[in-house]
Write a structure and sequence with these properties.
This protein has 14 helices and five strands. By secondary structure, it is mainly alpha-helical. The structure holds adenosine monophosphate (AMP) and tryptophan. Adenosine monophosphate binds next to helix 1.
Length: about 325
């Protein structure tokens, strides 16, 4: 099966991105043909600094590699280096109803946040995402819960194109992790963990041990003392138990048993040490890769070439079906 997914080169990656998306990617790459993209064009839809963007893009390649994506198996590349993404996005614009875009949850949230500076890219964002996915004749799109709606829209757009112009696109399936599809903020368990909130609300994949300990000890928990999973009544502790379970491989029941009769503080201390240990290899690999820029750039250049072959072949079909002249 062909797998496609992407992450924007904005901000720091956190354990929500890892548990929601990247951890699935690592599992999937063993048996599938995977394409992992750094979606720089998507990142331009919100305020950013052109001076630091290149650096952030290269850092994300390092993140992919440090978290276990194998460039010998999977394709790693940057969205804007394969121009077919923008080209297909434009063509798909012409068959996507405005109403479908305006009802997207992410658009509604972001358009409120950027009310004073609302650009068309923010509305059209899911069309570019559909182009990313459909260009590669993707079977599976592993993402966190917040992106599910966008993948569903990509399916609708693909079906519409196929009906209107003839079969070109595969209809992709979304794949959410069984647990961890929505890791919550450490400071507000009613909100998802997000890189755009303050650093105290998330654990970065490359946070130093001291930062991890401080953030976990300060994480908002609920009144009470018992380490028991209850999403409704104790969302703070439930979120921390989920994180514990996913990093340790222990079930929720086992964790509750392990901390029976012990308070929140002891549980948090243990969780902090678990995270310090689990993230150690990320920190180490990142440090090593930071000194190997030539190698990192070479991986991108190979990935771009492999991605282009697939993208160009789909685009040829699209042009033909839409009545455009071939290139
Ligand atoms: P983004 O950071 O928005 O580029 O998201 C990258 C990937 O991480 C997407 O697949 C998201 O669905 C996933 N993701 C982001 N935040 C979370 C979260 N708090 N919990 C689980 N998955 C997440
Ligand atoms: N919109 C996704 C996010 O913010 C990133 C993304 C862009 C993506 N194109 C994609 C994810 C294609 C999966 C497939 O997380």
């Amino acid at each position: 099966m062909r797998v496609f997914s992407g992450i924007q080169p904005t901000g720091k990656l956190h354990i929500g991105n890892y548990l929601g998306a990247i951890k699935q990617w690592i599992e999937l790459q063993e048996k599938n043909e995977c394409v992992f993209c750094i979606v720089d064009l998507h990142a331009l839809t919100v305020p950013y600094d052109p001076k630091t963007l290149q650096e952030l893009i290269l850092e994300k390649v390092i993140v992919y590699l440090a978290s276990g994506i194998n460039p010998e198996k999977s394709i790693i590349f940057v969205q804007s280096s394969v121009k077919e993404h923008s080209e297909l996005a434009w063509l798909l614009n012409t068959i996507t109803p405005l109403g479908d875009l305006a009802r997207m949850t992410q658009y509604k949230e972001k358009s409120k946040k950027f009310e004073k500076n609302l650009n068309a890219g923010l509305l059209n964002y899911p069309i570019l995402m559909a182009a990313d996915i459909l260009l590669y004749q993707t079977d599976l799109v592993p993402v966190g819960e917040d992106q599910k709606q966008h993948v569903e829209l990509a399916r609708t757009i693909a079906r519409k194109f196929n009906q209107k112009f003839g079969e070109v696109f595969k209809i992709p399936e979304v794949r959410l992790p069984k647990a961890g599809a929505r890791i919550m903020s450490l400071q507000n368990p009613a909100k998802k963990m997000s890189k755009t909130d303050g650093p105290e609300s998330y654990i970065g994949l490359f946070d130093e041990p001291e930062e991890i300990r401080t953030k976990i000890m300060r994480a908002v928990t609920d009144t009470g003392k018992i380490v028991k999973y209850n999403e409704k009544l104790k969302p703070g502790i439930a979120n921390l138990i989920t994180i514990y379970s996913l990093f340790s491989g222990k079930s929720i029941k086992e964790i509750e048993r392990k901390f029976k009769g012990k308070g929140y503080a002891e549980f948090k201390k243990s969780l902090a040490e678990l995270l310090v240990d689990s993230l150690e290899s990320f920190r180490r690999k990142k440090k090593e890769l930071l000194t190997r820029e030539v190698y990192v750039k070479e991986i991108l250049s190979q990935g771009t070439k492999r991605a282009q072959v697939i993208a160009q072949s789909t685009m040829q079909e699209v042009r033909k079906k839409m009545g455009l002249l071939p290139h």
